[in-house]
Amino acid sequence: MEPGSSSCPRGDGNPRESSPFINNTDDDKGTLYDGKNMALFEEEMDSNPMVSSLLNKLANYTNLTQGVREHEEADEDEGAKKKTVKSPQMGTFIGVYLPCLQNILGVILFLRMTWIVGTAGILESFIIVSMCCSCTMLTAISMSAIATNGVVPAGGSYYMISRSLGPEFGGAVGLCFYLGTTFAGAMYILGTIEILLTYIVPSAAIFKAEEKAQEADALLNNMRVYGTCCLTLMALVVFVGVKYVNKLALVFLACVVLSILAIYAGVIKTIFEPPVFPVCLLGNRTLQNHDFDKCMKTEIIDNLTVTTKLWSLFCEGPELNASCNEYFSLNNVTEIQGIPGLTSGVISENMWGSYGPAGMLVEKAVPSVPASVASQDKYMPYVANDITTFFTLLVGIYFPSVTGIMAGSNRSGDLRDAQRSIPIGTILAIPCIVIIIKSILKYLSCVVVFGACIEGVVLRDKFGDSVKGNLVIGTLSWPSPWVIVIGSFFSCCGAGLQSLTGAPRLLQAIARDGIVPFLQVFGHGKANGEPTWALLLTAVICESGILIASLDAVAPILSMFFLMCYLFVNLACALQTLLRTPNWRPRFKYYHWALSFLGMSLCLALMFISSWYYALVAMLIAGCIYKYIEYRGAEKEWGDGIRGLSLNAARYALIRLEEAPPHTKNWRPQLLVLLSLDSELSVKHPRLLSFTTQLKAGKGLTIVGSVLEGTYLTRESDAKRAEQSIKSAMAAEKTKGFCHVVVSSNLRDGFSHLIQSAGLGGMKHNSVLMAWPANWKQSNDPQSWRNFIETIRETTAAHQALLVAKNVDSFPHQERLAEGTIDVWWIVHDGGLLMLLPFLLQQHKVWRKCKMRIFTVAQLDDNSIQMKKDLQMFLYHLRLNAEVEVVEMHDSDISAFTYEKTLVMEQRSQMLKQMQLSRTEREREAQLIHDRNTASHAALNDNSDATPERVHMTWTKEKFCTERTRNREPNASVAVRDLFNMKPEWESLNQSNVRCMHTAVKLNEVVVNKSQGAHLVLLNMPGPPKSRGGDENYMEFLEVLMEGLNRVLLVRGGGREVITIYS
Fold first, then answer.
1. Distance from first CA to last CA of the chain, Å, rounded?
2. Alpha-carbon distance 450 to 463, whole Å?
3. Model confidence pLDDT, tens digit, residues 256-295
4. What are the protein's GO molecular function terms (predicted)?
5. DSSP β-bridge partners for residue 760
6. CA angle (848 as vertex; 845, 852 as ends), nearest 5
């Protein structure tokens, strides 16, 4: 097409449009897209952009940590105002592989692995390593599947869990994982300081122990001081920028790799030439080789026998006749090689574990002479356990060594392609664990290597005191132990920096999601997006871990948090796989729900194996966070798996409910509440929702519906506004349920559609609640009360119960009512709904102090005394507490007031039908008739005191005869004959209307007399006439029936029993 051609006119009248979705780079031509090629779709371009536009937006989309927002939640209005931020450039190696590797090849491997092997033995260490590595590998598979199922912005593991399991689970587990990552930083810093003060510069210790018993306390205090300084330095490095952390990471990792190679070289060298690290034994006890050079009691110098430095440690003086320690005197000193070599056969000695309490001496399985008194052993230079050891403790201490798989995913916001980098980097890093521990299936694990090369007493020597304070794993290396010391030092530094880099970003992602309100301040950062406030909080929490000062005490704590996170990663993958949601399309194909389920089970088992009380505390913390988010902040819809699971469960339950109608014992009011809206689309009667809440002690379904007149195309926005208005009213009235707004050509059809189609399957309403049309007489539109009557007919035809509340605006809101009564007038049997409703109301705090009274009406031929007894027995079997009263109503003559009332009613109805009155005249006429009606009723009330005998509580034969004789007296003031003589026009009245009005008047007198002071009156609602010609008269009958009563609930049963005496 030519650029100058005219285009099809748009709906807004603009003939041509410069599309914002097409990138036009040809500035010389200056042509604009005129929409001719796609004119057929032109009017929908605003809502449905062209494919080229969509692809362009996706190409420019960056999942930056800086101000990150999900693309589906992005605020388009801010798009033009956002600053251009440099895209993240981290690839797989720097962004994922290095962080994972630095955390995996960390503090536990270098500082505790040999001690774990020596304490647990090769077999049990093999089990520990196998369980932990299997758990990590299975979790890595699940995480890779989730990570390749879409864009992974900042937040990493938190993002993956929250979008898979929902904001509640995601927030709870995300915060727990954040705490775990933060405590991991504390653990790495403690490891750094332990290496520094124990192996590199012991003289730098500020606190020094004067006695051996004070050494542990001095070490802890030194760890606290130096740890705080190290934390401050690392936090400053992270604050300066993550790029510096990445630059340092390369240096740190190089040192780590050299350390690993040195260990392998040392293992090979032990076959030919084992290193010389002598260990001194006194009897079978291992000695700390710090303060003596020669492993002997005495030596011969110039043909003289002199004592050594070792002698002075156990004796009171250097003299040969000095008093010495009993065990020292009874046993000889022997020297063994600490690293006997791979072919020495020491593996058989290290096969089994050697657990014991704190203070237990590290002993070799050789003969010795025990001392009679062992109280002085703790003051002697023996190597001893610093903590009580057992299998489960070692599991908790070892597990952090395999927790590095999340280090890269935490920094997903800094990756160029998180979907590609996370699985590749993570899965490649896992074999590094396998390389170090020599692979539990294919390679020799490092457990076997350590057990085969190093003497058992040296393995159990945590701090290398028996080998002159050398790092135990360093004694195995070649060419020097310092290679391992320096490598492990930098490894711990790097891992600490990675933790302090990842944890603030994780917290920032949680804060920016807004699911935890009080954390929102931590979503802010520097201009480049660095999480400054989150880093500050991370440093404070990390400091609390440093103050613990013991690596062995911190490790089990962070193991719990990591295991909980891994558990939910596996759960998320298994859940998404089993639900088979259409959006579950990961590019990583090597996963299966069974593997994820196995990983989840293994994580749960390891939590309780490591420490059952830590596991319970971690679960309690996660549970509290979950409930807090659910209560305060979780208003997100992320298409999570828990929602999908709920949908599946709901579908299954609905299908089961559809199989058969509910039994009477399971019946509960499933309410459809019909609301009216004003011109501003606000709810007219919000107290109807309050009453619904108070009635829902049955915990049934609630559907709140309303109807707008018009067509959906023209009133779509009004329908949404009305729905939002109703939801706001429901929230204000604490009504839990569903909202449904229907747009229909008229209100009559709209309410009919709601009654017929609201609900789904077995979860359909069985009761309709609505307000009484109070102004039906004054209304200039007769359709309002006709809709009301048609609604009654609809519910009857649908076999649904109907509840109509009169004066609903006077119903209680949240204030508790004082002691009073709920009066039930049981005129006809409706299935028991009249008696069930007060019971449900009494379960709510508003009505709890109200007592139930049940009134029933006895006719002439009824035995009222027996009726009362039978009713009391019936209530007893129903387990309902209520007062019973039987009211007797005889067939009295029709009063003049009744005739007058009927006459006024018919005259009004006739006039409104035959005369075409204007709106003003119609309102004036209606008001005039209403005034006459009120005056006539007032005249009747003045004469009511003259006939108190019209209601008798007990019938007897004498009373019956007296009443019949009185009614036959010719001078009776209310005789029909006299009435017709007085007003001939009454003879033309419809006798059916006269009888109905008579019933309404007489019953109203009785109800007002008994229940005018009740908090609520429940009445049987009579059905509308079969002929629609009498609809207006029916409204008048109901009005008369409820006249003089404040709160009334008309009840019409649904045609089935809703209450039973059987269990």
1. 81
2. 16
3. 778 888 888 898 888 888 888 999 999 999 998 888 888 8
4. potassium:chloride symporter activity
5. 763
6. 150
Angle CA 563–609–567, to nearest 5:
25
Strands 882-889 vs 951-952: parallel, antiparallel or unpaired: antiparallel
Q: Are 685 and 716 in contact (CB under 8 A)?
A: no
For 163-173, give one letter per residue: b (16+ CB within 10 A) or e. bbbbbbbbbbb
Q: Are 794 and 760 in contact (CB under 8 A)?
A: no
655 or 981: which leads in pLDDT:
655
The 3-state DSSP composition of the chain as helix, strand, coil percent (nearest 5) reads: 55, 10, 35
Strand order from edge to edge, sheet including 285-286: 285-286, 278-282, 333-337
Give the residue with greater pLDDT, 113 vs 76: 113
| C-alpha span between 157 and 173 (Å, rounded) | 9
> Quick one: what percent of the chain has pLDDT higher than 70?
71
Torsion of CA 93, 96, 102, 108, to 10 degrees: -140
Q: Which residues lie closer than 8 Å to 1062 by C-beta, 6 or more apart?
A: 665
**Burial class (CB within 10 angstroms; exposed 0-12, middle 13-18, buried 19+) of 516:** buried
3-state SS string for 739-758: EEEEEECCHHHHHHHHHHHC
What is the residue type of 610? S
Q: How far apart, in whole angstroms, are the C-alpha atoms of residue 283 and residue 370?
A: 9
Nearest to 740 by CA among 766, 704, 708, 714: 704
Contact by Cβ (8 Å): 567, 157: no
Instruction: List beta partners, residue 824.
Output: 854, 1018
Rounded to whole angstroms, what are the CA distances from 228 to 190, 389, 637? 10, 28, 42
For residues 624 and 629, what is the distance between their CA atoms, to the nearest angstrom? 9
Cα–Cα distance between 215 and 242 in angstroms, integer?
38
Report the distance separating Cα 1051 and Cα 837, nearest Å.
9
Residue scoring higher pLDDT (1023 or 995): 1023
What tokens does 133 get?
């590595």
Instruction: For residue range 358-401, list pLDDT tens digits in order.
Output: 888 999 988 888 888 777 777 888 999 989 999 999 999 988 88
Residue 1030 to residues 223, 993, 994, 1027, Cα–Cα distance (Å) = 94, 9, 13, 6
Residue 1027 · residue 634 · CB < 8 Å? no
Q: What is the pLDDT of residue 934?
A: 53
CA 915/CA 102 separation, integer angstroms: 94
Give me the long-range contacts of 599-603 (CB less than 8 A, separation at least 24).
Answer: 599/134, 599/135, 599/138, 599/139, 599/141, 599/142, 599/566, 599/570, 600/567, 600/570, 600/571, 600/574, 602/131, 602/134, 602/135, 602/138, 603/135, 603/139, 603/563, 603/564, 603/566, 603/567, 603/570
CB 1004 within 8 A of CB 1034: no
Q: Residue 851 phi/psi, 5° resolution?
A: -100, 150
Cis, bond preceding 479 (omega within 30 deg of 0): yes
Cα(358)–Cα(379) distance, rounded to whole angstroms?
14
Give the side-chain half-sphere CA count within 13 A for 757. 9
DSSP state letter for 984: G
Distance CA 1054, CA 797 (A): 9
For tokens 């139930």, name the residue.
852
Phi, psi of 151 (to 5 degrees): -70, 135
Is a pLDDT exceeding 90 seen at residue 542? yes
Count helices and strands (H / E) in the chain.
33, 16
How far apart, in whole angstroms, are the C-alpha atoms of residue 400 and residue 433?
Answer: 12
Contact at 8 Å (CB) between 804 and 1049? yes
- Rounded CA-CA distance 938/761 in Å is 52
Tell me the C-alpha distance between 996 and 894, whole Å. Answer: 11
